[in-house]
Amino acid sequence: MERIKKSYNLVIGIIALIAIVLAVSFAGYIVSRPKPMLIQGEAEATEYRISGKVPGRIEMFLVSEGDFVHKGDTLVEIDSPEVKAKLAQANAVKSMAEAQKNKALTGARKEQIAAAYELWQQAKVQEDIMKKSYERMKRLYDQQVVAAQKFDEIEAKYKAAQATCRAAKSQYDMAVNGARKEDKESAIALVDQANAALMEVNSYLGELFLTSPADGVISARYPKAGELVGQGAPIMTVTDLDDVWFTFNIREDMLKGLRTGDEMTVRIPALNDARYTLKVNYISVRESYATWRAAKEYGQYDAKTFEVRAVPVKKIDGIRPGMSAIVISE
After folding, report:
1. What pTM was estimated for this model as a whole?
2. Which of 77, 96, 240, 303 could be stapled to 216 by a disulfide with Cβ–Cβ 3.0 to 4.6 Å?
3. Spatial separation of the C-alpha atoms in residues 324 and 224, rounded to whole Å
4. 39, 37, 48: which is closest to 247 by C-alpha?
5. What is the pLDDT of residue 26?
């Protein structure tokens, strides 16, 4: 009887030992079993950096961070005394050019024409008098009544009177006809140049009021009101929430034949783990780094990482850049 009892205890012990070994083995398997790889991505959206072409001081912000704006809304006003000074200079240059143009096209005033005519008439009278004196002196010279020196003096005065009359006539003709064609064209070109300079300054004036290039949310605002900003310095960022995509960095051995146009299902923890369908629209290797992984016991290779982008099939309400997306394995 005692021998049977010992045999029974031995069997119980063996069974218990086997059970313990099986339990430990099962627990080890559960712990060491490879977990499914988690593919996580991040939401991104198109961002517009708002900056101006002219330096100046922030006069006023018309929107705050988090505000929704429409395309064309004025976001910020910049004060630039330099641009205003250039505008005054451009207006002054244009006024001067307009005056020169009017003078060239309209010609001399009536008073100037009348004065030139009077000078011409006086020169003509003087020429007639000298002509008579010259003819009289020539007859006397031919008769050898006067000396050659006297005749030469009268002849010189007569020629001088003729030159004076011609010059007076030219001045009168110029006053009547106005400026030359070249002068008129030059005056018109000066006005065109002044108008172009004024247009340039006016374009800079438009840069003092910066507007939104698209509908979106003000996601960042960099300087404060009253601070100086340089040319091209970013002032704020507008994020277009209608242009959202997700970016995933996937190792090549996990792509599993993924192609452009394929669809994937993701869950977004920030949106109560709601599920959404995405369509792949971009796949490209990331050459900046490679994830090393031994594919076989003997022989190894560098498993490169690919950037995969996917866009929502339908608009996702409440999505914001930076939210995580977890790929759901089928």
Report:
1. 0.56
2. 240
3. 31
4. 39
5. 61
The whole-number average pLDDT for the span 249-258 is: 84
Is residue 165 pLDDT above 50, yes or no? Answer: yes
Q: Would you state the structure tokens that stand for residue 120, as one six-digit string? A: 């011409």
Whether the CA torsion 99, 104, 110, 115 is positive or negative: it is: positive
The C-alpha torsion from 49 through 53 and 57 to 62, rounded to 10°, is -50
More confident of the two residues 132 and 289:
132
Instruction: List domains and CATH numbers for the chain.
Output: 36-45+242-327 (2.40.30.170), 46-79+206-237 (2.40.50.100), 87-203 (no CATH)
Angle, to 10 degrees, between the axis of helix 148-177 and the axis of helix 110-142? 160
Q: How confident is the model at residue 104 (pLDDT cuts 50, 70, 90)?
A: low
Confidence of residue 208 (pLDDT cuts 50, 70, 90): confident
**What average pLDDT does the chain have?**
78
**Residue 109, Cβ density class (10 Å: 0-12 exposed, 13-18 middle, ≥19 buried):** exposed
Q: Under the phi-then-psi rule, with left for phi > 0, alpha for psi from -120 to 50, and beta for the rest, what region is 218?
A: beta
